[in-house]
Design goal:
Layout: E1 2-11, E2 14-17, E3 22-27, E4 47-52, E5 62-70
Antiparallel strand pairs: 1-5, 2-3, 3-4
C-alpha cells in the first residue's frame, strides 16, 4: 500500500554529472530567489534527485515528481 503525499510538475533546471553511474536532476531556483510558482507547482518546490545514467533527460524538459509513503 502507498499514500500519495505530494505531486507536482516542474522544469529541469540542469542535469549534473555525479559519477559514471548516476546523474542528478535539479531545479533549485537559482535563476531567482525561489522556484517558479505555477499551476502545476503551486508552492514553487525545488528538487534534487539522483537517477541512473541513460535517462535521456535534459535541461528545460518538464517532469512530474511524486512522493508516496509506502508501507
Amino acid at each position: 500500500m502507498s499514500e500519495k503525499v505530494l505531486e507536482f510538475i516542474s522544469e529541469i533546471e540542469f542535469v549534473a554529472n555525479i559519477d559514471e553511474k548516476k546523474d542528478c536532476l535539479m531545479n533549485q531556483g537559482t535563476h531567482s530567489d525561489a522556484a517558479a510558482v505555477t499551476a502545476e507547482n503551486p508552492y514553487g518546490l525545488w528538487f534534487n534527485i539522483d537517477i541512473p545514467k541513460g535517462h535521456g533527460l535534459k535541461s528545460g524538459e518538464r517532469i512530474r515528481i511524486i512522493v508516496e509513503k509506502v508501507d
